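# nightly structure sweep
# worker-07 picked up a monomer target from the shared queue
# config: single-sequence mode, recycle default, output format = structure tokens
# input follows
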Amino acid sequence: MVKHERLLMLYALFVGLPGWLWLLFAPWFVPSLPALLLFAALALAIDALSFRTSFAEVYGLAGVVLLTAALSLGPGAAALIAALEGAVSGLLLTLIYNRPRTLYYLVARPFLRGGMRAAGLLLGAMLATAATGRLQYDPATLDPVALLIWSTLSLFGIIQLTRVGREWLQGGLSAVFAWWQRTWYLAVGAELLPLPLALLGAAIYRELGIAYFLLAGLAMVAAAAAVRRASLNLASQRRSVRELAMLNEVSRAIIRSELDVETLCELVYREAGKVVDTSSFHIGLFEGSRYTLMVRVQDNVRLPRLTVDLADGDGLIGWMHQTGKALLVEDFLEEMKHLPARPRYQSERPPRSGIYVPLLIGEEVIGSLSVQSYQPGAFAANDLRLLSLIADQAAVAITRARAFSEARRRAVQLQAIQQVSERITAILDLEQLLPAIVRLIHEHFAYHPVHIFTLKPGDQRIYFRASTATDEQLEAVRTRALMIGQGLIGAAARSKEVVLIGDVQRDPRYIAGNSNTRSELVVPLRIGAEVVGILDVQSAEVNDFDADDLFVMRTLADQIAIAIDSANIYRAQQEEAWTLNALLQVAENIGRANCVEDLLATAVRLPPILIGAARCYLLLWEQEAFVVRSSYGVTGKLRDALNGVPMTLTEAPLLARVYSLQTSQPMPLIRIIGAEERVRAWPVLASINAGQSLVALPLTGRSGHLGALVLDFDEVIAEFDTRQINLCIGAARQVAAALESLQLAQEAEVATKLEQEIKVARELQTALLPSKSPQLEGWQIASAWRSARMVGGDFFDFWRLPARPQLSEGDERTMPLGFVIADVSDKGVPAALFMALSRSLVRAAALDGSSPSVALERANRWINRDSESGMFVTLFYGILQPDTGQVRYSVAGHNPPMHYHASDGTITELRTPGIALGVLEEIQLNEAEICLQPGDILLCYTDGATETIDELQSEFGTDRLRDLIRLHHLEHAEVLVEAILQAVATYGRGQPPYDDITLLVLKRDRV
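# output follows
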């Protein structure tokens, strides 16, 4: 039923959608809002007064209003009114006629109704446009007659085609023909013929005005109301007759009936004899396709009860069973060719006339009542009516008697089921419960044999657990390997539905086991949607199981499923308690370990004690390989051979599988069965020949793989139960957590020591740098050093050089100032060490007053001789003559310093050919000379300033440095340095430091 309604809903949405989409793209002229509301209200009022001939069919005059709107306001506006009013009225009619409140009636069908009407009007406009050759959407220029004709045909046609599609979906082609024969005159009379009145309505609206149109609309509403009232009165009269007849039937059934079917049939025979000739009388009852004549009288002679099979539905009784219709035959000889079915009996003296009446309960035929006569015309229509009344009374009484008999039988069955349920629900041990179930079913219901099977979540196998069979039959069912989907039992497990087979030899799914089995009933034991077991009963008789057996087994299955579930829960709770206790012991033992070595020794001792493994190995993941760090259960020589040997993933397939496991998997463990498989999975175990099974578990922490725990069993471990699995996994996770904690503690201790050492290194490195800038008369010198890490690779330095020979040596104004800024190729501690070496060698090479290029070439030879790290350093070395402002410099692959000219505000970069120190043993550097005039600025920097990036990965760049120099060229050198540092920090906010930053600024005071 749900599937059928979904199909109708999809049909309604699919068919209605084009009309709504067409409405979005159709051209239409916007009328006044009052006009729209007037037509919509009129159409809605008439739709509300529509009349109904069946549950699904509703007829009314709303089409006249919609066509009037199309002729008056244009097809586009009319289509909008039709769509919205159709959807609203569809929902309103659902409420008025009290239809089911489903998505189909509340949403899909109103959607179809609105889309269908809109499509009909727009299609009519399109056809009229094609027929006349001009657009028919403007109400001022449209052709009323053409639009009326084409809109009438399209609107009526689309509505009828939509109904045809719905009827075809519900009952096929035969349903379509039956519907059309039943409703065509209503569709034509109520929906097609009145449509031309729309031309009159449009003329009244356009020529006489709103007032007259309102009067015409009220007249149409009154006409719709009158038709609806007449339809309701007719339906009410019919209901009254049926209700009076029903009351009479019920009263007579209550007075005359007895709660026994045979007695009731005798009573019907006597009652019928009072109104018709019952010298030849039959009353029979149906049980499926079988028909039993309860009272059988022929020529006033009582005949014994007779049961026949009417599976083919032939004969008058079979026809009546299928159709539920009564039949009056006045003369068989004359009417034989026109009868709906030929009589099944063959007799030398057949009857000439007869009445055949079904015993109906609702639409179900439960039996038939018939009288015959050897005289033609022996019965009339009044006899048929009277016999029908008796038949109706008999049907109600027989149904009540059957229900009482069924209830009494059910009571006996339920009492037996209750006794069985009380006994099985008291057993919580699954091993005792299942044999008790099959034994009690056999004792109380005499089923034999009875089998019971269980299933496990995620397992395709079906496990035999108990049976009433013995000897060879028991052995056959015990040893049979069943999978879900195989045989009748597997079919029930897969479908989760009862499988009832009257003759197993005709069912291809049957797997031959017991040669005596002919019929079988298989019932899944379900808890919600999960199948926990299968209950199977068999019989040596064909079709031995009926509806009663099905009821008993289904009811028992519910109770058995609950009992099995309770036993499983009880067992799971016991196992969980045991597992928790064992894991608590594991946690206590592991918690006592103060170091990794103690933990490893404890971890390999616990699984053999708790799970029974003969040996246990614990491996750690170190440098892309597994290394055995602890083992238990092996001799000292083997332990020495195993411990400390790295094993890569390619050398041990077992360890490769462990490495690939994820702890989020349901069962993160691997089982290897068999001595040969064991050695093949981990070749190092070839020296230990006793083992038959391996179980490996990953040790995984938050930081990734830590290692593996491998259990080695002497016996074959085909399968672990849930308790063993939980215990293994729980122990492995506790070991992994403790191991990671201890390793992190060790790493934290090492990190703390390293941090202290780095702090000392930073203090030493800071001590190597100048604590303050030199103070020269007429000059401003400022510097800054910021490392990206605790220590860095940048450095700068100042030193005083010997004065020129022609000058007095003691005058500081004439003593040259050497200054250097450098950037080592790496970061962190290695760069800091190389920086210290480079600084010392560069300083030593320059203190004799050599020219910049000579000093740096000498320093390069020393660096290459004393360093094997492969690192290099870029430098800018300059010598300032304070009294003249002359700067002689050399650039060794470093960022070119910027020279700001105060005279014109330009900035030039200081460049000389040369490479970094430490790359080649012999290099040749060049040097150049500039003169810093009053107000000039020389900015030296490392790439940490220009290569700082923002959140968009864009660099700070040299252009921003130039802008900062121009902005602060009148301020003190220290202000310029702080401005640069602040700008770089602001630009790179939110990003980690990219590199060390070092700045050195020389500015000559203005005179």
